[in-house]
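Input chain follows. Return structure tokens only.
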Amino acid sequence: MYKLLDDAVQTALALKPLVANSNHCDIVITPPFTSLKTVADRLEGSNVNVAGQDCSTQNEVGAHTGEVTPGMLKDVGCSYVIIAHSERRQFYSETDESANRKLKAAINAGLSPIFCIGEVLSEREAGSAEDVVETQLNAGLEGLTVADMERIIVAYEPVWAIGTGKTATPEQAQEMHGYIRQKVSEIHGKTVAESLRVLYGGSVKPDNISDLMAQPDVDGALVGGASLEAESFAKIVNYK
């Protein structure tokens, strides 16, 4: 919940030339709903894509005041949507079941969902981090086909490392990313698991991105606070 319209547009326009030659990865930014259309229009033809921060569980229009369908996001220029971010789970009653419905609705609308999973500090300290992640993963991906999985991006968020200044060590990130890939392999097969992109999210900054990306199962980053300034985010994109 950052940036009014003008600030969002100016940040996007400042980012655009800084990453214009960054062909080694896909670049996605997620402005607030109120800025999506304007930002997407200003970025048209560039290599910077736009995503919604959340969406409804369904695509049918109707009496659901305050909701935004995946189709509406697609209509204003989005290619992606974040689903089940830890803050939605923690503060806005997101469940594994609602996340599953959102994933299906987003795929049906032609969006690529960025599906977030991850444990809180008490769960990690209790030694149940893998169990929590496995439950979220299994429930969130329930009923999805191999073709659906080609659209899915998984983002692992150790909730205890979001906005706290703490970061999972590269080894901790790799351990969980490898576990996620193993579990996806058990559900959908090795080919799907190997092609799945698994992002790390949790206090990602320009000074730790290289170490994180050096891990074999870390395919990208879900960036929070460090994405609020174009220069900082561009340094992460262009970490090599």
